[in-house]
Design a protein that fits this description.
Number of helices: 8
Subcellular location: Cytoplasm
Keywords: Cytoplasm, Glycosyltransferase, Isomerase, Queuosine biosynthesis, S-adenosyl-L-methionine, Transferase
Oligomer: single chain
GO molecular function: S-adenosylmethionine:tRNA ribosyltransferase-isomerase activity
CATH topology of the largest domain: QueA-like
Number of domains: 2
Largest sheet: 9 strands, mixed
Distance between the termini: 21 Å
CATH superfamily of the largest domain: QueA-like
Helix content: 10-25%
EC number: 2.4.99.17
CATH architecture of the largest domain: 3-Layer(aba) Sandwich
Shape: globular
Family: Belongs to the QueA family.
Length: about 350
């Protein structure tokens, strides 16, 4: 299957640069994965689309202030994006600069881009493929440094610097487990009030953890999508989640994943058939032809052209249905991507 089959035209002005004033103020495009029918709603309508026997599965990862600025001790300016914290003082990170730092190089950190370096220093200790191993050994913990001078890692299509409000709005209200460098954006639409309303309707909810990595924005470069190599992300699906999924199925309810990260978590835990506890890295790549084992519906944002996430939702509801729905969203001036509007999709032919 060709990458070009997942392309679509998106006017630049439809890419949301800021969130709406209220989390649930967004629109909700509902897509029936069997018929392809679309209905335009508000996100606050979601509670009315759920049934008492349904199960919502949220990703409780918490975004860390993973973007750092500074310079090499030899003088070259650089930008760091922490990909994964590996210890109290260590991490793997992307480093962008004119010349890649060598192991043993020192990095002097600054509070913001272009500022003079402050007291914090990191050292490059090695390299793992495209990532650099960095350490703050001999100084404060790396998480402490990020908490002091780190910036929220807004996606590259948000063409502005992060602001104070992003500390709250680029974070779900149920975020608990620190480790993501990108938000599970479908969850950004939920407020405490909406969650309470959903619970009062008898809908149960559970949480998984998938620490979203910067690789989520990595474009598919292979012409044939089957040749694409997925990045790995840490996932935890515990026994309580597995029991809730099985109980929901027994009751005839639907398992509804909030976000593609929740989808990938559940499907990673279901690779051998029945869902089972899973902890570790996953590089699951879901594209048309995949048979879903544990997900009946999903809440998701709109995804970039030719992205792995657009391929995932196409596998779930059918590529033609998805591309038609996206064309309708463009026509009706929906807001796209992380701070944009949402979809509620029920399973199509990709459900086993």
């Amino acid at each position: 299957m060709k990458r070009s089959e997942f392309n679509y035209q998106l006017p630049q002005e439809l890419i949301a640069q800021y969130p709406l004033p209220g989390r649930s103020d967004s629109r909700l495009l509902c897509l029936d994965g069997v018929t392809g029918e679309t209905v335009h709603r508000r996100f606050t309508d979601l509670a009315g689309l759920l049934r008492p026997d349904d199960l919502l599965v949220f990703n409780n990862t918490r975004v860390i202030p993973a973007r750092l600025w500074g310079q090499k001790e030899t003088g070259g300016k650089l930008e760091i994006l922490v990909e994964r914290v590996t210890g109290s003082h260590t991490a793997l990170a992307h480093i962008r600069c004119s010349k890649s730092p060598k192991p043993g190089s020192g990095i002097l950190l600054a509070a913001r881009e272009g500022a003079e370096p402050g007291p914090y220093r990191l050292q490059v200790t090695g390299r793992e493929d495209a990532l650099f191993a960095i350490s703050s050994e001999g100084g404060p913990a790396l998480t402490e440094i990020m908490g002091d001078i780190g910036h929220m890692p807004l996606p590259p299509y948000i063409e502005r610097e992060d602001e104070g409000s992003d500390q709250e709005r680029y974070q779900t209200v149920f975020a608990e487990q620190e480790g993501a460098v990108a938000a599970p954006t479908a969850g950004l639409h939920f407020t405490r009030e909406l969650l309470d309303e959903i619970s009062e309707r008898g809908v149960r909810s559970v949480t998984v953890t998938l620490h979203v990595g910067a690789g989520t924005f990595q474009p598919v470069r292979a012409d044939n999508i089957e040749d694409h190599v997925m990045h790995a992300e840490y996932v935890q699906v515990d026994d309580a989640v597995c029991s809730a999924v099985r109980d929901t199925r027994t009751r005839g309810g639907r398992v509804i994943a909030v976000g593609t990260t929740a989808v990938r978590s559940l499907e990673s835990a279901s690779q051998h058939g029945d869902i089972a506890p899973f902890t570790g890295d996953t590089d699951i790549f879901i594209y048309p032809g995949y048979r879903f084992r544990s997900v009946d519906a999903m809440v998701t944002n709109f995804h970039l052209p030719e992205s792995t996430l657009l391929m995932l939702v196409s596998a779930f509801a059918g590529k033609e249905h998805i591309m038609n729905a996206y064309a309708s969203a463009v026509e009706h001036r929906y807001r796209f991507f992380s701070y944009g509007d949402a979809m509620f999709i029920t399973a199509g032919a990709g459900k086993s």
